[in-house]
Specification:
CATH class of the largest domain in chain B: Mainly Alpha
Largest sheet of chain B: 2 strands, antiparallel
Helix content of chain B: over 70%
Oligomer: heterodimer
CATH architecture of the largest domain in chain A: 3-Layer(aba) Sandwich
Number of strands of chain B: 2
CATH topology of the largest domain in chain A: Rossmann fold
Mean pLDDT of chain B: 85
Strand content of chain B: under 5%
CATH superfamily of the largest domain in chain A: Adenosylhomocysteinase-like
Largest interface: A-B, 22 and 17 residues
CATH class of the largest domain in chain A: Alpha Beta
Order of helices and strands of chain B: HHEEHHH
Shape of chain B: elongated
Number of domains of chain A: 2
Strand content of chain A: 15-25%
Low-confidence stretches of chain A: none
Low-confidence stretches of chain B: none
Strand order of the largest sheet of chain A: 9-8-7-10-11-14-13-12
CATH architecture of the largest domain in chain B: Orthogonal Bundle
Radius of gyration of chain B: 23 Å
Distance between the termini of chain B: 77 Å
Radius of gyration of chain A: 23 Å
Strand order of the largest sheet of chain B: 1-2
CATH topology of the largest domain in chain B: Multidrug-efflux Transporter Regulator, Chain: A, Domain 2
Mean pLDDT of chain A: 94
Number of helices of chain A: 17
Shape of chain A: globular
Structural class of chain B: mainly alpha
Number of helices of chain B: 5
Largest sheet of chain A: 8 strands, mixed
Chain lengths: ~425, ~110
């Protein structure tokens, strides 16, 4: 069967290495494994065609295995031509019976041809990390729109785009925004990025966090995670925010809260996690202390005004790997990590597989949900249903061997009567 | 001085601008290996002297130390080491390049 499977990957002989690495990641993905076992028994995706456009990595491979186990006919292409792991692509084709169209470093034409190939699969369900397949279906392949039951979108940016399409009445099938699940935020953004950001800062600088004034710009899920871990290592954490509720929450959590113009003067380490631009602007860089370390863990490298920093500096050099030293006119030095790119992916290893386990469990269960509720879903962007979030939390606890209390019948009745009485 | 006459280590050092200690270091790392007299004294011939002068030029142009050269030699000879170093360097570059690609993709999405 594997011989006849359509595919375009670099080299099938890389498959054994890919299998080895996929199985290693699998050990860190127990929730997905539990779902896979159930899917194998219940076959909820039997006969459905799925086209997925995701980073072709070991974690994604385990999601593909899960969809296959549920009976789906899956095709995978890359959501980024540079993140593809060729051994994983080979293993999926040769060992896991999944058609893959992805070659690391492929040029733009090949990249888009591969997305087309995934669409040629005539999918009924789509999975995107940046709305690629959904985009092709809404433009060059409109004749296929009628086949689609639902799409899943993994990224915030993709969801923003799809919500805009929904508002214009242009969205032609239901989409589930996987990024907005609590079990995604909690683990991926807060604990995953929280840890890997600190990891990136420490690996690149070998700085001791204890006793340092650590400024976190933005108290969203990522900011919360970074602040939590920095405090855990003994740093004195300062939060800057524009949202009153979040600022208040940070304050009540025991952090100092102040505007960036004040934080800039006292901070030793700065980390932006806002999603906006020039959060650390030229005027902030101008007043920083000698030796200040500046980095970003938001999506884009626009959160720090890097052109402004370059124009302020009279000299710059690579101080260490991933550390650029800028010398200002009065001799003060500012250290920029990883060119202002995501410090957790650039200077550390990004999300551990165990974090992707939760995100991809949302993908797998949302796919099942979309099939079960196909008739009632409208052409809208939906959050992941609460029941799925709860199921994943329950599975996660179970895989960790943690047992929680259950309401007694009496307690359940009491709660029910109380809510009815109000 | 007769240019074809081999030089002792001290004379060769004086002639090429390196220290005698550096010459022994270079020999130890098989970068410039002089002949020996029957009594065991080092003798630097024209070829070795030229290599020492060329190395001094390299240092001037690229700011490389003899230890850099010794490592470059290891990279040429030790296949496993070269693969490991290449792989490590590529990982760092890969992370930068795929993140940049991701950013451009997301910017296009937001602009659409």
């Amino acid at each position: 069967m594997a011989q006849t499977l359509r595919h375009d990957v670099k080299d099938l002989s890389l498959a054994p290495e890919g299998v080895r690495r996929i199985m290693w990641a699998d050990r860190q993905m127990p929730v997905l494994a539990a779902i896979r076992e159930r899917f194998e028994r219940e076959q909820p995706l039997a006969g459905y065609r799925i086209s997925a456009c995701l980073h072709v990595t070991t974690e994604t491979a385990n999601l593909m295995r899960t969809l296959k186990a549920g009976g789906a006919d899956v095709v995978l292409c890359a959501s980024n031509p540079l993140s593809t792991q060729d051994d994983v692509a080979a293993a999926l084709v040769a060992e896991f019976d999944t058609a893959v169209f992805a070659i690391k470093g492929e040029d733009n034409d090949t990249y888009y041809a591969h997305i087309e190939a995934a669409v040629d699969h005539k999918p009924q369900l789509t999975m995107d990390d940046g709305a690629d397949v959904i985009g092709v279906l809404h433009s060059a392949r409109r004749e296929q729109l009628g086949d689609i039951i639902a799409g899943m979108e993994e990224t915030t940016t993709g969801v923003i785009r799809l919500k805009a399409m929904e508002a214009d009445g242009a969205l032609a099938f239901p989409v589930i925004a996987v990024n907005e699940a609590r079990t995604k935020h909690f683990f991926d953004n807060r604990y995953g990025t929280g840890q890997s950001t600190i990891d990136g800062i420490i690996r690149s600088t070998n700085v001791l966090l204890a006793g340092k004034r650590f400024v976190v710009a933005g108290y969203g899920w990522v900011g919360r995670g970074v602040a939590l871990r920095a405090r855990g290592l003994g740093a004195h954490v300062i939060i800057t925010e524009v949202d009153a509720m979040r600022a208040l929450e940070a304050l009540m959590e025991g952090y100092e809260v102040m505007p960036m113009s004040d934080a800039a003067r006292v901070g030793d380490i700065f980390c932006t996690a806002t999603g906006d631009k020039h959060v650390i602007a030229r005027e902030h860089l101008e007043v920083m202390k000698d030796g200040a370390i500046v980095c970003n863990t938001g999506h884009f490298n626009v959160e720090i005004d890097i052109p402004g920093l370059r124009s302020l500096a009279v000299e710059s050099r690579e101080a260490r790997n991933f550390v650029e030293e800028f010398v200002l006119a009065d001799g003060r030095r500012i250290f920029l990590l990883a060119d202002g790119r995501l410090v957790n992916i650039s200077a550390a290893e990004g999300h551990p597989a165990i974090v992707m386990d939760m995100s991809f469990a949302n993908q797998a269960l949302s796919t099942e949900y979309a099939i079960q509720h196909a008739s009632s879903l409208e052409h809208k962007v939906y959050p992941v249903p609460t029941a799925i979030d709860e199921e994943i939390a329950r599975l996660k606890l179970a895989t960790m061997g943690v047992v929680i209390d259950q309401l007694t019948e009496e307690q359940a009745n009491y709660l029910a009567s109380w809510s009815e009485g109000t | 001085m007769d240019a074809t006459q081999p030089l002792t280590v001290d004379a060769a050092a004086a002639e090429t601008g390196w220290s005698a200690r550096m010459l022994r270091y270079l020999e130890e790392h098989e970068l410039v290996v002089p002949r020996r007299t029957s009594a065991g004294y080092r003798l630097y011939g024209l070829a070795e002297l030229n290599r020492l002068r060329a190395l001094r030029d390299l240092r001037g142009r690229f700011r490389i130390d003899p230890s850099d050269l010794a490592f470059a030699l290891r990279l040429r000879r030790e296949h496993e080491l070269r693969r490991a170093v290449d792989g490590w360097l590529a990982t760092a570059e890969d992370a930068r390049s795929w993140i940049d690609w991701e950013q451009r993709k997301q910017e296009r999405l937001l602009a659409a």
